[in-house]
Amino acid sequence: MPERPPVLPADLLAAAQRRDPARPLLTWYQPATGARVELSVVTFATWVAKTCGLLTDDLDVTPGEPVEVRLPAHWLGPVWAQAVWTVGARLLLPGQVGNGPPSVLVRDADEPDGGEDQARELVVVRTAPLGGPAGALTPAGSWDYGREVPGQPDRFAPLVAPPPDPVPPDLTAAARGRVDERGPGRRTLVVAERLDRLVVLEALLVPLLGDGSAVLVHGSPGPEELTSIARAERVEVTTGRS
Fold first, then answer.
1. What confidence score (pLDDT) does residue 97 get?
2. Is the whole model's pTM more than 0.85, yes or no?
3. Is the pLDDT of residue 1 over 50?
4. What is the reported pLDDT for 116?
């Protein structure tokens, strides 16, 4: 069997915009607060483009540099993962070991300090339902994502070509395997506490690769609540908790 071409997240998102920019791509639930946020393909792409602008223009991230994203299972997590890959940087999730400290550490504003003194830059993200500035929760000398990102351009054109395939091969293989097994156009529900491999796989790569969508549920809802969400969102595939 011939080797398949690499997964290029930027190309996958661009293709999704050409096909149907208004369709839902990512729907986020936080049952503890009753929050629900839905992002269409074009809205998701706009947030990604703005985040790419922050990464390259303000944080000076270049292809191959490690960027650690330490966020809860919030809709901004897949946005950050897609942006890191789009600029050709290396995505580090909690628990992954890099060769030295990350160039940029991205963490939730409500998390205690830890490890950012080793990173070149710290970005603080407020993970309220609609995001927004972190304000006084932003340590001196760091970046307040919610304050900086609105002024970034809605489109991103890299000045330096990213590496051919920023996604780890095992993650690519897992995403392709799920799309092959389920077929295209599936809507998947994933329950998680934090941004991790499962969230990146099921709420980002699989929907982009398989022309589908995802419902990301933050926290630990009970079976009845999950069933209600799945029914309301017409979910076809439910993944395990992470």
1. 65
2. yes
3. no
4. 64
Residues 118-140: pLDDT tens digits? 899 999 999 999 999 999 999 99
CA distance 186 to 204: 13
What is the rounded CA–CA span in Å between residue 157 and residue 197?
A: 27
The secondary structure of the chain, three-state, reads CCCCCCCCHHHHHHHHHHHCCCCEEEEEEECCCCEEEEEEHHHHHHHHHHHHHHHHHHCCCCCCCEEEEECECCCHHHHHHHHHHHCCCEEECCCCCCCCCCCEEEEECCCCCCCHHHCCEEEEECCCCCCCCCHHHCCCCCEEHHHHHHHCCCCCCCCCCCCCCCCCHHHHHHHHHHHHHHCCCCEEEEEECECCHHHHHHHHHHHHHCCCEEEEEECCCCHHHHHHHHHHHCCCEEEEEC
Six-digit token pair at 189?
């529900």
d(CA 5, CA 164): 10
> Structural domains in the chain?
9-33+165-241 (no CATH), 41-151 (3.40.50.980)
State the CB neighbour count (10 A cutoff) for residue 145: 25
Q: Are 154 and 50 in contact (CB under 8 A)?
A: yes
Q: Which residue has the tokens 């909690």?
A: 94
As a whole number, mean pLDDT of residues 1-22 equals 83
